Amino acid sequence: MVRREPSLFARLIVLIAMVLATGAAALTTAAWYYARAAANEAYDRLLVGAAYQMAEAVHVQDGTLTVELPMSAFELLALSERDRIFYRIVDTSGRTLTGYGDLPLPGSEPPAPDRPALSNGTFMGAPVRLVRASRAFADPSVQGRVDVVVAQTVEARTALARELTLRAVGLILAMSTLALGGTIFAIRHALKPMARVGAVLRERDPHDVTPITVATPRELRPFVSAINTFIARLKSRMDLMQQFVADTAHQIRTPLAALKSQVDLLSHHLGEPQARQHLARVEERVDQLSRLVGQLLSHAMISHRAGAVPFAPVDVTETVRRAIREAVPDTLDRDILTMLEVPPQPIEVRGDAISLKEAVKNVIDNAVRHGAATRLTVRLREENGTVEIEVEDDGPGIAPELWPRVVERFGAPSPGGSGLGLSIAADVLAAHGGSLGFRRDNENSFAVVMRIAGRAS
């Protein structure tokens, strides 16, 4: 049972949906990183601003450092209702002036006045974002740096990053949905030519074997071309079958009519001397009919195998030997000296062994029945990459003016023959890239030369 494959439409939709899902996942991840960076940047600015305001609130009074924390600094940080705020101010000697004394100082070195240090940490069991700002004092009584550390929990910025990400995800999902919908519409529209080709094939008459001429996109042209190639091969097979039926009906009708008349004559002359003569004619017609049917079947088999059976290495020497055994009957009513001349080394070609044997057998049979009187020689040789099989006899041969006709079906039938033998051989050789030729050396020597192009590698 042929396994059912999913439709091309479904496969395209699944593949595109997977691509869109992968892209949406990548975009969602990127959106989360960008949203978190944007939230950190926004809240870091508030945190740095508060730290600088606190640093500016440190003054030297009566030789000592005093702090008057501005409310505006806390108001900036109080914009986030969820977060808690921690701070610490350290004087030049490292003592805590105010704030949480255990609040850690970010960084191992004091930051530059215009570049505060930012870092992540944990304080009182909660993750916090810390900023450290420094302010230098050059008063005669106070000299050195004062560090201001401000920390804020990260709930607000995490919530902001989540909200920005969800909005981006919503936009991504909306765009992906629109893209998938547009893709479905585009694919359905793009696959319409395939449905049109299918409709053309379904609506065709079963006897219509003309090529498809429907307009198709460039991508479907190989598909339509393959269908047209198949239709052409099917038409060729149908033509061969019709030709075979027509040839068989035409050629068998004549021997059958003659056979019937001989049987009628024989039935009216039973016991008379003419009966033996009529019986001999009946036997001759039966033999002729048998050979005709055999050649027609051979021609049909070769026509079927042409182009359908892949070529393989063929031992030509063995093929010729088999053809001689089948073509020269043991019960021949005259003595014919049959000789086979082959080279010592094997000769191989790429071809169809059965078709080549039938071709050689038909040529030898033709020589035995209509040519050879006392001698038949079959030679096998190879010259310039071409394999030649020569069948020579000492008969009268074929007149040169008939050479073009005898290679055609029923082109020049001989008495008692059908005119099929040499045409079968010519068709087989043409399918193997070769040809069938004739040669006459003298009055007692006529040869049929079969040429096969190429030697098996």
From TrEMBL:
Residue ranges occupied by any Histidine kinase domain in the UniProt entry: 247-454
Transmembrane segments annotated in the record for this chain: 12-35, 168-187
Catalytic activity: ATP + protein L-histidine = ADP + protein N-phospho-L-histidine
Superkingdom of the source species: Bacteria
Cleavable signal peptide: none
Sequence ranges assigned to domain HAMP in this UniProt record: 188-239
The entry's keywords: Kinase, Membrane, Phosphoprotein, Transferase, Transmembrane, Transmembrane helix, Two-component regulatory system
Pfam family, any one: 2CSK_N
Entry-linked InterPro entries: 2CSK_N, HAMP_dom, HATPase_C_sf, HATPase_dom, His_kinase_dom, HisK_dim/P_dom, HisK_dim/P_sf, Sig_transdc_His_kin-like_C
GO MF entry, a single one: kinase activity
SMART domains: HATPase_c, HisKA
Presence of keyword Phosphoprotein: yes
Subcellular location: Membrane
Enzyme class: transferase
EC number: 2.7.13.3
Protein name: histidine kinase
Organism the protein comes from: Chelatococcus sambhunathii
